[in-house]
Amino acid sequence: MTPLKCCDSISLSSIILPRSRGGAEMGWQNAIELVVGLHALAMFMTYPLLQQYVHQSLTMRVRSLHLSVKQAVQRETSRFLLHSELCFLLPGLVSSLFLVSYSDWRGRKAAIVPPLVGDLLFTLTYFVVSRFSLSLGYLLGASFLAGILGGPGSLIGGCFCYVADRSAEGPPESRTVRMARLDAVLGTLSGLGSLCTGFYVRAAGFSWPFLSASALHLLNLLYVLAILQEPSARPGHGPAPNQFPQVSKLGGMSMVILYELNAPLCWSEVLIGYGAALSTLIYLSSFAGVAVLSRWLPDPCITLLGMFSLASGLCLAAFAKTTLLMFLVRLPLLLSIMPAPVMRSMMSKLVRSSEQGTVFACVAFVEMLSMAVALPLFTSTYAATVSWFSGFSFLLAASLTLIPAILIGSTSFRQFGNVGMMSSVPIQCFLGR
Length: 433
Prior knowledge:
It comes from Electrophorus electricus (Electric eel). It is found in: Lysosome membrane. InterPro entries: MFS_trans_sf (IPR036259). There is one protein chain. This protein is an all-alpha fold. It has 19 helices and no strands. Helix 4 runs antiparallel to helix 5, helix 6 runs antiparallel to helix 16 and helix 7 (172-204) packs across helix 15.
C-alpha cells in the first residue's frame, strides 16, 4: 500500500479494503480488515448490550428486595461485570499467548479461527439466557469458554501479524499506516454496532440483537475458513520487546457506559448508541493523525501526543454532568488511539517476518494482563466511589497515563543524548526520517 497524502479523503471503503504497494486493491482474499470489521461490528453490538442487560436484570432483582435501587444496581452490575471479565481474562492470558505464537508455525488462521468460535458460542449463550430469562450464572461459563479459545486478544494479535507479513517488503511508514488503518476499521465498525444496538433493543428487546451478533460471527468464521488466504511466512522464533502500559486507557474507558447510565446523566440505550457512534470519530481522527504525523514526527512523539489526548479526555469526562458535555468529551480524545498502532509498528519492525507471531503473542499477553489488572481495579474503585464522586475512576485513569509517558519520554531523551555524543549524524537519520 502507499501512504496517505495529506489531502486524501478518507472513505469507509478505502479504510476497509487494503491496497498493495503499487496502489491496486489486493482483493477480498487478503482483506484482513474485513475480519476485524465484522468482529468489531458483532462484538460492539454485544458489549454495550450485555452491560445494559445485566443492569436491567439486576434492577428487577434489587427492586424485589426493596433496596435503594440506583446505587445498589450500580454496585451489583459493576461486581457482576468484574466476575465475568475475570472468567474471560484469566484463561485468555494463557490461550492468547499460545495461539498467536503458534501462528508462526501453523499460519495466522490458527490465531484467528478459535476466537471466532468462542465469540459465536458466547453470543449464542447470551441469546438463550435473555430469551428464556435464565440465571446470569450461565454467562460466567460463556465468558470462561470464550477466554479459553483466545478472545479478542488472540484474534487482533493474529490480524496484526497478518498485516506485518503482508507489509514486510514495503516502506516502514506503510506498516504504521496499515496498522492504524486496522484500528480505524475496529473503531468505525464498533461505533456502528453500538449505534444499531440502541434502536434494535428498543424495537426487539435484548434477544434478537444477540442472535444477530451470532450470525455476524458465523459469517466472519466462514469467510476466514473459506476465502481468506494465508500470508507466506517461514517458521521461526525470536525475542519480543515490551509493550507500554494500557491500564489507564482500558480501565477508564471500561467505566463509560456505567457512568452514562448513572445519575445525573441517566442515558437511554439510544443515547448510549449515539455516544458510541460519535466515538468512531476518535478512531478515524487517530488514523488520519498517524498517516499525517508519521511523515514529520518520530514515533515516540506521536505516542506521547496520543497519551496527552487520552489524559485530557478522561479529566473532562470526570466532571461531565450534562448530556452535551458528555458528548463533547470525545473532542479531546480525538488522537487518543494513536499510541497503540504506532507502538505495534515499532515492535514489529524489530524482528523478522517469521517472528511476528512471537512479538504479537507477547503484545496480546501484556494487553490481556493490562485488562486483568485494569478491570478489577477500576470496577472496584467505581463501586466504592460511585456514592460520593462517580468520576473518580476517570481521574485515576488520567493520572496513570503519567507512568508510560515518563518512561517513553525519558527513554527517547536518553537515546537522543547518546546519539548527540557518539555521532554527528543528524537526528533525522537516527529517527529514520
